[in-house]
């Protein structure tokens, strides 16, 4: 069964600083990987995804993520955070035959300080 | 990005009552999903629905739950006899058959008292 681990429950960064949110997955084949963001009281918005090809993927809002098969990781990065990036971030994995259920990690809450 | 609406935004019900949560996709999709998120916890898969049939369900999705597309557009989740532990945010998601992306609705907050 697939699983996702987000080891950081809560991260605080200063506005303008760089950000990296960690995600490790467990899946037998090549996974479909996703990052979603959830603002308070809101639904989930897709930031980016990885299916195949280039292991560095670009998403919306200036985010990027790198797939590292050897480390079973898909970490999310942003070079300079903005106060509006404060939210909950979820990593998710889906099966490699597409349109299957997503398995989510427990999320990382990001706080931005001035 | 496809638009998904969910109604109601908040439902309060008494234990043992039936509730129906609705999902209205604005565009045509073949894949539908329900997920739930208990307050402070991760998002959990409930059920996937393809071509008007359940394609997969989790252990959470027991006999108290059912899904259907009664009129070919709305996608509903019914809980027959709600329990306190059903209190959660319920998200509908649409699956894109080409990109394999899933687009989530804003959610329905269900409170069982």
Question: What descriptive keywords fit this protein?
Answer:
heterodimer, A: about 110 residues, mainly beta, four-stranded antiparallel β-sheet, globular, B: about 110 residues, seven-stranded mixed β-sheet, about 55% strand
Main beta sheet of chain B: 7 strands, mixed
Instruction: Choose one word for the global shape of chain A.
Output: globular
Uncertain segments of chain A are none
Terminal Cα separation of chain A, in Å? Answer: 41 Å
Shape of chain B: globular
SS content category of chain A: mainly beta
Characterization of this structure:
Chain A is globular. Chain A starts with a strand and ends with a strand. Chain A has strands at residues 3-5, 10-14, 19-21, 24-26, 32-38, 44-50, 56-58, 64-68, 73-78, 87-94, 102-104, 108-113. The mean pLDDT of chain A is 92. Chain A is an all-beta fold. In chain A, a hairpin with a 4-residue loop joins strand 8 and strand 9 (73-78). In chain A, the strands form 3 sheets. In chain A, strands 2, 5, 6, 10, 11 and 12 form a 6-stranded mixed sheet that branches. In chain A, strands 3-9-8-7 form a 4-stranded antiparallel sheet, with no helix packed on it. A two-stranded antiparallel ribbon of chain A has the order 1-4. With 113 residues, chain B is an all-beta fold. Chain B has no helices and 11 strands. Chain B has strands spanning 4-7, 10-13, 19-25, 31-37, 43-50, 53-57, 65-68, 75-79, 88-95, 102-104, 108-112. In chain B, the strands form 2 sheets. In chain B, strands 2, 4, 5, 6, 9, 10 and 11 form a 7-stranded mixed sheet that branches. Chain B starts with a strand and ends with a strand. At the A-B interface, strand 5, strand 6, strand 10 and strand 11 of A face strand 4, strand 5 and strand 10 of B.
